[in-house]
Structures are given as C-alpha cells and as structure tokens.
Amino acid sequence: MNPIDTKLISQSTGIVKSIEYLHNFNQTDGSNTTDFDSGPQGAKFGTMTGQQFKRISWRLPLGPGDVLEFELSENNGQHWVKNADSSLMCSWSQQTTTVYGYQVANLTATTADVYFGLYRNVATGAYGAAGYAWTGLSGYRWRVKKTAYY
Fold it and tell me: What mean pLDDT value characterizes the chain?
C-alpha cells in the first residue's frame, strides 16, 4: 500500500477545475474492486468484520495538486465532515497487528482503494486492544471527495 495523507493542502493555483464524489456501494463483508460509483450521496456502511478495502474510481485522471478527502455523514448525507477523525472513527492507525480506522491508498491515475481496519477506532487505552466495531453505523455514509485544481 502507498498511503497518502488525506489532509493534503493543494500546492496548485487554488483554482478548482472539478470536484468528484466517489464511493463503493458494495455492502457485503469483504473487499470489493468492482462496485464503485460517483455522486454526492456517498455509500452506506455495510457489514465489516475484518480488515478490507473498497475500490473507488474517478472520471478525470489524478493530476498534480489534486486532493482526495475522506468524508463522513452521520445523517444520511445531509451534512458531511472531512477527514473524519473523531471519537467515532479515526484515520489509519496500527498498534501491534491491530488496525483501526480508514485510509485512501494504492493510487493509480483513475482509482484508489479505501481501506477499513479491523476496528473503526480505539476503544480503550490498552495498546493493540480490541476497538469499536464497524457495526452500529446505521444512517452513516462515507465518500471520497476528489478536487482537481488548475
């Protein structure tokens, strides 16, 4: 995996060329490389009992200065939070062999994989302990926002 920092700040001119919203609508337990989609609605969280990834794809090739941001909605897509680091979910973190959170990685010109760890966040202060499961996210949606700059 080649992780990217989802909190990147564009080093381009700052003039937006296009915005795409990407997600993978597959809700089955396991990785998926084919059910990618686009649109502002995002995707519901499906069953996730192990570490897995969901592939996303965008229309315009990734360019220099483009920014990818993971976004989370807790009210079925009415409002979105960027880079959803919160008590609910964290960005990718590994403690011993236990992986928590999400990350966008394995970039190509037109695709990336959104990885989901075994747990969505750490639950206790014990290093590498079981965390909060991905269950209980009814009404929550996720998407990746791709902003292309001139």
Answer: 89
Characterise 101 by phi-psi region: left (phi > 0), alpha (psi -120 to 50), beta (else): left
Q: How many domains does the chain have?
A: 1
With a cut of 90, say whether residue 92 has pLDDT above it. Answer: yes
Q: In whole angstroms, give the CA distance from residue 115 to residue 124.
A: 22
Assigned token pair, 130 = 């079981």
Distance (Å, rounded) from C-alpha 35 to C-alpha 55? Answer: 8
Residues spanned by the domain of 67 = 16-87+105-115+138-149
Q: Coil, strand, or helix at residue 47? A: coil
Count the helix, strand and coil residues of the chain and give each as a percent rounded to the nearest 5.
Answer: 0, 40, 60
| pLDDT of 103 over the 50 cut | yes
Whether pLDDT at 44 is above 80: yes
The single-letter code of the amino acid at 61 is P
